[in-house]
Amino acid sequence: MRAILFVVLLSTPALAATMTCGSGSLTPAAVTTTGASANVLNARGSSSALFQAIRTAGTATVQIEVSCDGSNWAAVSSGSMSVDGTTTTAAVSVLWPTACAYRANVTACSSCSLTVLYACAS
What we know:
single chain; Jelly Rolls; eight-stranded mixed beta sheet; 8 strands
């Protein structure tokens, strides 16, 4: 029985991680194309969440998004960050985040390479 369980778990594809508050990265590897972050943040119980985009190449626009059902994502107002040749990093914060999930969505990328970090306050 253990062998069957092991085989089933081994064959299950890896999914994006749901991160909890503290601090970490929504992008486990540098992002080089448009699209949503691999990880999502559940900021339940935090008084604020901060998201920081750090660019190492190119230009990019990152939109912080929220979803309460895990399928339908909406832009967080004032959640857009642009990083370019003169701005290597940008940050946005969400006060009293809901118990929903947050992600970073790279909406524009021109030869970009960037990471998106998060940190929460209790």
